[in-house]
Design brief:
Shape: globular
Radius of gyration: 30 Å
Protein name: WG repeat-containing protein
Number of helices: 2
Helix content: under 10%
Strand content: 35-45%
Structural class: mainly beta
Number of strands: 73
Distance between the termini: 57 Å
Strand order of the largest sheet: 64-63-73-72-71-70-69-68
Largest sheet: 8 strands, antiparallel
Pfam family, one: DKNYY
Length: 706
């Protein structure tokens, strides 16, 4: 479908819709009965958090909440951080709330012992004068100032300084620091003399092992090897002298070949390519896991023949999802169906044969063919009337082609544009959102706090919230001159602190002394899962409990606890458990997922509620895929939505779960009788089946809950 074309020579479209909405500050709800629930999983916050007050820092994580008293003038969170474990002042490093007295100059994290999903992974870090693992000082490292990780991948635990090589905190006496390398496999390293696995010298058949360009393929003088779970397997079925990995260094390892066959990823089942055709082999890499190989007669996407594609003129727009032949340009997004692999032809008006010289990809992912353009994310948005000058500007990265409503907008890029987000920017002394001029004063427009998670802006007259789907929202009722952000998410002026559009309490002598962020992982009153965060404040008037909804920003409730803090503002652990038990609520973070023989036994931050069919949430991550099933409520037809709007519907009937997403993807899963396991998934979209995968997702109940 062709779209109308709007050409802008220098400036974007100007529309004076300005600011979409005015948000007026309102009073919060007062409820003297609210209490902090008791989580069965985390008592405070799921992540490590350092909250800065005027004269102390509040540290919280899942099990700990305490005050720290660092040097407040030099206290800061380092940019080089992990899981927010660290904070620094001039005299100390704080690791997960524990103070380590040391000169923090040249602080740097150098490695992790454990996977990125491991909440208890060990962290190697250093300062100018010492090296530590978590809180323990390691004396084995002789020269901290020159100590480095062998790679930029910090989950590698080989280190070296000017004189020695180390595996974790063990010195490898025989290793040569000048020639040591660790390129492809975290536990494997080699130098001019030896090879090492987990810090120990290793050989195969008394021969030195060296890598051959991929993280788990190696060779000796006589053998070809593959490393699997720290065990070397002899690939005796392959010809060691002719074996090679195909492709660039970045993508090498998808295809491999010897004098007899070519293989995909593992040298087991060869591709159906005749031996005499191996001399014609050529490979290409696209985006993500898109790999192509041709023998001159056929083109394969991974192990599937691309039917109807001319092999002699085949090519790939490097790093993208697009490929081409003499007949057209195609969207090569992976779609498995009964006929092999599906792909879509871009509906250009093809006047001349496609070649490498007639197409290119611009900086925005748009495909340009002759004087036509197709928007990368919107295949239906294309047009044919680019001028030769505009084509040249696109090649020089000086043209911006994008979707604007039902139109395509072309504008020259202005080099002095200042972007606050991809939709909010400053250009020619004006502030634009989605190419529409706003009322903001460009000369004084700035973000209030770059480090805050809130996108709050101000100019000389006004204060604005910014939301990606709504633009600038003017806020009325806060003093502009004394505006600031405290405790990451709260606004503050000379009179009050605020959350979104709610005035909370007086800002006089304000401090935050307690945080309880459960993200729905607790039972509320009557055993109903809640989705609120709770904050305990102290100011000149005494103590305050503030309850904030995670779903509706304007839902804020406060309770004055008095001048003295008593124990009447929490629900006891046992009372919460009894409430959960009576209402049949199960809570778990233990999820086991089996995906193509790749088992994730420990998954972070994923959980489930089940209360008489009331609420289920599943989010599971493996190394190869992510499943995210959100809010299956009442086990019936449910409209799912996020802030941007509806995303699809669930239907559960006879232990079958069907999820139809608005983008055309459909899922089918089967629960067991107790609704504690999903046993099977089918995936399809409007172009055909995406495949069938067997999954075992098991939910483990907490002991003591029925």
């Amino acid at each position: 479908m062709k779209k109308y074309l709007i050409i802008l020579c220098i400036l974007p479209i100007i529309s004076f819709s300005q600011v979409n909405k005015v948000l007026k500050i309102e009073e919060p709800t007062i409820n003297n009965n609210i209490k902090v629930p008791s989580s069965t999983l985390c008592r405070y916050t799921r992540e490590d958090t350092y909250t800065v007050n005027e004269d102390f820092v509040l540290f919280t994580n899942c099990t700990t909440q305490k005050k720290l008293y660092p040097d407040m003038n030099s206290f800061h969170i380092p940019e080089d951080n992990v899981e927010n474990y660290f904070a620094l002042d001039k005299d100390a490093v704080y690791f997960r709330g524990k103070k380590i007295k040391t000169n923090s100059t040249d602080f740097k994290i150098i490695g992790f012992d454990g996977s990125y999903l491991d909440e208890n992974k060990k962290v190697y870090w250093k300062t100018k004068n010492a090296v530590y693992k978590n809180t323990k000082k390691l004396k084995v490292f002789s020269d901290p100032s020159t100590l480095i990780n062998l790679t930029s991948i910090k989950y590698n635990v080989y280190f070296k300084d000017d004189n020695n090589v180390y595996y974790k905190e063990t010195k490898i006496e025989q290793a040569d620091p000048k020639t040591i390398k660790n390129e492809y496999y975290n536990d494997f390293a080699y130098d001019k003399n030896n090879s090492y696995l987990k810090g120990e010298i290793i050989t195969y058949d008394n021969e030195k092992i060296i890598p051959i360009g991929h993280y788990n393929y190696f060779r000796t003088a006589k053998h070809l090897l593959r490393l699997n779970d720290s065990v070397f397997m002899n690939l005796s079925q392959l010809d060691v002298n002719s074996f090679k990995l195909l492709g660039t260094k970045e993508y090498r390892g998808c295809y491999m070949m010897d004098k007899n066959h070519i293989y995909l990823e593992t040298p087991t089942v060869p591709l159906p390519i005749k031996k005499e055709k191996l001399k014609n082999i050529k490979v290409w890499s696209g985006h993500s896991r898109a790999y192509y190989v041709s023998d001159g007669e056929h083109v394969f996407f991974r192990d599937h023949i691309l039917k109807g594609i001319d092999a002699k003129t085949f090519g790939v727009l490097e790093g993208s999802k697009y490929f081409y032949d003499k007949n057209g340009v195609y969207d090569g997004t992976y779609r498995r169906n009964t006929n092999g692999v599906g792909f879509r032809k871009i509906p250009f008006n093809y006047k001349i044969p496609i070649s490498e010289s007639s197409i290119f990809l611009d900086d925005y992912g748009n495909v340009i063919y002759e004087q036509q353009a197709c928007l990368g994310h919107y295949l239906e948005f294309y047009f044919e009337n680019l001028t030769p000058k505009e084509v040249q500007l696109a090649k020089e990265s000086k043209l911006n082609i994008k979707k604007g409503g039902n139109h395509v907008i072309i504008e020259k890029k202005v080099l002095d544009q200042e972007f606050y987000s991809d939709l909010l920017y400053k250009n020619n002394d004006k502030i634009y959102f989605q190419d529409q001029e706003t009322i903001a004063d460009a000369d004084t427009f700035k973000r209030v706090d770059e480090k805050s998670s809130i996108y709050l802006f101000k100019d000389i007259e006004n204060i604005y919230y910014f939301k990606q789907n709504k633009g600038l929202i003017k806020v009325e009722g806060i003093d502009n001159k004394t505006l600031g952000i405290v405790f990451d998410i709260f606004l503050k002026d000379k009179n009050y602190i605020y959350y979104y559009n709610k005035k909370i309490i007086s800002s006089k002598d304000i401090s935050l002394i307690g945080i309880y962020k459960f993200n729905g992982l607790f039972c509320g009153v009557g055993g109903v899962p809640e989705d609120f965060d709770y904050y305990l404040f102290k100011n000149l008037e005494g103590y305050w409990l503030v309850k904030i909804s995670n779903k509706f920003q304007e839902n804020v409730t406060i309770r004055h606890l008095g001048k003295k803090l008593r124990n009447n503002w929490k629900i006891s652990n046992q009372k919460a458990k009894n409430s959960c038990r009576q209402n049949g609520v199960y809570v778990t973070t233990k999820i086991k997922i089996d995906h193509k023989n790749n088992t994730c036994n420990k998954v972070k931050n994923y959980y489930r509620f089940y209360s008489n069919g009331m609420f289920i949430r599943i989010t599971a991550t493996c190394t190869t895929t992510i499943w995210d099933f959100i809010d299956i409520i009442n086990l019936k037809n449910v409209e799912l939505s996020k802030e941007e709007g509806s995303i699809g519907k669930y239907t559960i009937e006879n232990n079958l779960i069907k999820f139809s997403r608005n983008d055309g993807i459909n899922f089918l899963g089967k629960f067991n009788k107790n609704l504690t396991k999903i046993q099977l998934f089918d995936f399809s979209d409007k172009y055909g089946k995406l495949g069938k995968h067997t999954e075992n997702i098991e939910f483990i109940k907490i002991e003591g809950l029925k």
